[in-house]
Design goal:
- This protein is α/β, with parallel strands linked by helices.
- Helix 1 packs across helix 9 and helix 3 runs parallel beside helix 5.
- It has 10 helices and 12 strands.
- The two termini are 23 Å apart.
- It has a 12-stranded mixed beta sheet.
- The radius of gyration is 19 Å and the shape is globular.
- The protein has a single domain, classed as Aldolase class I (TIM Barrel, Alpha-Beta Barrel), CATH 3.20.20.70.
Length: 322
């Protein structure tokens, strides 16, 4: 289905929980967030109901997110059922990687083909600082397990000035010998840390740093791919990519909508509005379809996040699904 600006919407991001086993500094405040009650979170059957309706609108890729989706009980069975919905061409999952050692093969068997793994440092102490206690060793073991299971991997690094920006080149080097996609993401001030501007490293600066060390070739992205501008280092097996939500929006090519764990449908991560799908889940399939059509129809031409930072309400990425 095309939105009112001619963009083909074929990608749904589905957050199945607001809970997480980490407390990453750019995702939520140090004291955490108020978690939703079990009664507020959609049941798996309701998520499947939404996806079945979305397929009729042309959704072909679903990415399951959180919070940390692997902490929710029954997730493997849900992913298997999701993968078997007629019309779905790809099921992917975003994770922090802590539980991959025990779940990687089950994910592959359930029909998941791609993983996005959030990993913001290759230094144990820095990683623990950013995640407020996470184990880098555990994540690296999870990457090995995922690769052994045959899962395709993307590594997501949020680049923060003075914290991990010196690791851009070592991260890019991971793509040399591995068929991985390493993606660098500009810091977004969703939780409004004090002096957040000091942490922002622009995509242009990231690209310049990479070009100082490597010969890069711009390459095309896939049909269902996200907003990264992809490159390949000369001779590398994998790729690198840069995502610029702050310095250079990519709204003109946005192909997605998203549904939160509580059933709020959003046409844009950085726009304030949403539509509560819960009432429509109790009505006919036709009414749910109309609701999703409304979400697509309301998708803005572009977000105005930087212009509206002062009046926007801070939010935790774990509550929406990054």
């Amino acid at each position: 289905m095309q939105d009112n600006h001619g963009r083909n919407i074929n990608y749904l991001r589905l957050s199945i929980t607001d809970r997480c086993n980490l407390r990453c500094r750019y995702c939520m405040p140090a004291d955490g967030v108020v978690q939703k009650s079990c009664g507020e979170i959609l049941r798996y059957e309701q998520f499947l109901q939404i996806v079945e309706a979305a397929v009729k609108l042309g959704i072909r890729k679903v990415r399951v997110t959180g919070g940390e989706p692997l902490v929710r009980k029954g997730v493997i069975d849900f992913l298997s059922r999701l993968s078997n919905i007629p019309g779905i061409k790809e099921v992917a999952l975003t994770t922090n990687g802590l539980l991959l050692t025990e779940k990687a093969q089950a994910l592959m068997d359930a029909g998941v083909k791609r993983l996005n793994v959030s990993i913001d440092s290759l230094q144990p102490e820095t990683y623990a600082q950013i995640t407020r206690g996470g184990s880098l060793e555990q994540v690296l073991a999870g990457l090995d397990a995922a690769e052994a299971a045959g899962l395709k991997l993307k590594l997501n690094m949020v680049v923060m000035n003075g914290i991990n920006d010196q690791e851009v080149v070592p991260f890019a080097a991971l793509s040399l010998d591995k068929p991985w996609s390493v993606r660098f993401i500009e810091y977004m001030p969703t939780i409004r840390e004090k002096q957040w501007q000091n942490q922002l490293v622009s995509g242009a600066d990231i690209l310049c740093e990479l070009q100082r060390h490597y010969s890069l070739k711009s390459i095309s992205s896939g049909r269902y791919c996200g907003p990264a501008k992809p490159y390949r280092i000369a001779g590398a097996k994998g790729t690198v990519g840069i995502i610029t939500p702050m310095s250079e929006h990519f709204c003109g090519s946005c192909n997605r909508i998203r549904v939160t764990s509580t059933g709020q449908a959003k046409s844009c991560l950085l726009a304030g509005g949403s539509l509560d799908l819960k009432p429509y889940l109790q009505q006919s399939a036709a009414e749910l379809l109309k609701a999703l059509q409304q979400v697509v129809g309301d998708k803005p031409a572009q977000h105005r996040y930087r212009l509206e930072l002062e009046k926007d309400v801070p939010f935790s990425m774990s509550s929406i699904g990054g």
